[in-house]
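Hello K.,

You asked for the raw outputs rather than the summary table, so here they are, unedited. I folded two proteins back to back in the same session to keep the settings identical. This is the first:
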Amino acid sequence: MGDWSLRETLSTASGTVRWDRFGDPGGEPVVLLHGTPFSSYVWHEVAPALAAAGHRVHVWDMPGYGSSGMYADQDVSLGVQGEVFTELLAHWGLREPSVVAHDFGGCVALRAHLLHGARYRRLVLVDPVALEPWGSPFFRLVGEHSHVFEQLPAALHEALVREYVTSASHAGLRPAALDALVRPWTGERGQAAFYRQIAQADQRFTDDIQPLYPTIDLPVTVCWGTEDTWIPFAKGQELAALIPGARLRPVPDAGHLVPLDAPARLASEVLTFLAR
């Protein structure tokens, strides 16, 4: 677990997806979804805790993210990610796993469930992109002018990504963690991929499903960092109120990157929920 790398691959219409799983092969399955501009590395502290508790933990990098395939004109939209996730669940043979999803991963998990028939035993949403409006002024600026930002000198681009990723944390990221999150977005391929995924972000992918939240019929917990400056805590309250029976669990002193700001607290919340 110290060297975070994903050993398995699946070829999809949106490119090669890298994935891995660990823990007790007979344990209850749990699938972890990352957000943007991150990768499965955000779970590198939470995943071992879930595995140690007896769960079979599945992680993956979305197409266009982390160690998965990145290429020109790639469709990495939230619409495609929901389809890829549904395909992955079938590939893994998981008929009803528990799912823990952060940021964009929350929208991906919700779309897979509400639009593509994916079934979950339980669902944990961690500071998800789920309600309009979303997208910071910086995010919208980059999306509207991605062709300009793609031409930034490499050093300036990396500095921009580092500052952007850092702003998602309230506690402050350790240098090794920051390096791991930034590294996939460096180099010619990574730089183009970073602006590609922002350019393809579109609120219509949450608008599609937001009216369906009151129809969700499974146990849901919403965990939210109280110091999230990307998506304020009030959105967590709003989302929990829309999903029947959903529990809202504030995570004190954590920003948007709850899995890295408060991994022990988040793992505890998830394990308690899964055991209910």
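The second followed immediately with the same parameters:
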Amino acid sequence: MSPMPMLDRRGLWVAAASFVLWGLMPLYWHLLKAVPSLQIVLHRIVWSTLLVVGWLCWKQGAQWWKAAVARPRVAWMLALSGTLIAFNWGLYIWAVNAGHVVETSLGYFINPLLNVVLGVLLLRERLNAAQWIAVAIAAAGVLWLTFNYGSFPWIALALAASFGLYGLIRKVTAVDSVPGLGIESAYLFLPALALLLWSETHGRGGFVADWGLALDALLVFGGVLTALPLIGFAYAVRRVPLSVVGLMQYIAPTLQLLIGVLVFQETFDRDRAIGFVFIWIGLAVFAVDGVWRSRRRVVPVAA
């Protein structure tokens, strides 16, 4: 196994921006609390597809998809990743608007550890001793949260598994980030559009007629907020080792946890605080090790 390569700085910045945006998303979806969760997901799919596919057609022409799926296995792998991310969206939005923001943050605390495991076991990525210590401390925090949560955290585990597998598929699929998202979205577009139209004609929807201009605008702009972090994540995950991306993902659940506790006043007792502290100690160890390694200099030896 080869050691972890030099980190791509642009990939790191893009990953960080994506995770910050994801971390703030509960505030946005809470504004749409009056809209059924399924309707929000369907609108996310439709508007993000129109945005991404429209941009690709403008920049690359109508045949952009042929180049994207020319390699073997790309088409069916993107169909699978699209299904996983749609499931993840639906569960997440329902959980946020049902008052489970803290549990969704637990899911995204678990997810980076799952990415580290996938990176090491399946992609032969290698961690040094300090990074293993960081992972072990963070894992202890996640285990503490899981076993002291008060009930089986099925929402958290389902979110972690679905997004972890999504990241793995996008890591190993040889397709650029934006075309890949375009193909994923295209697979979901027609079923989502058909269900939206059925809902509107059978009294289950309220777009334009009932929800009001403000909510309609939020639903449409939700497509932009859906596409941007996914494009950034897919860009970063192909340029940064999956184990590093996995640990960076703690940015999003930390913000979600703070929003759940400080904004939505959800329960955050002593047991949850202990788990949170363990996770942040692990992150601190990983960050200090990364800074130290980046400052090392190789001094050439004269012949």
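Residues 9-294 form one domain.

Happy to rerun anything if the numbers look odd on your end.

Regards,
P.
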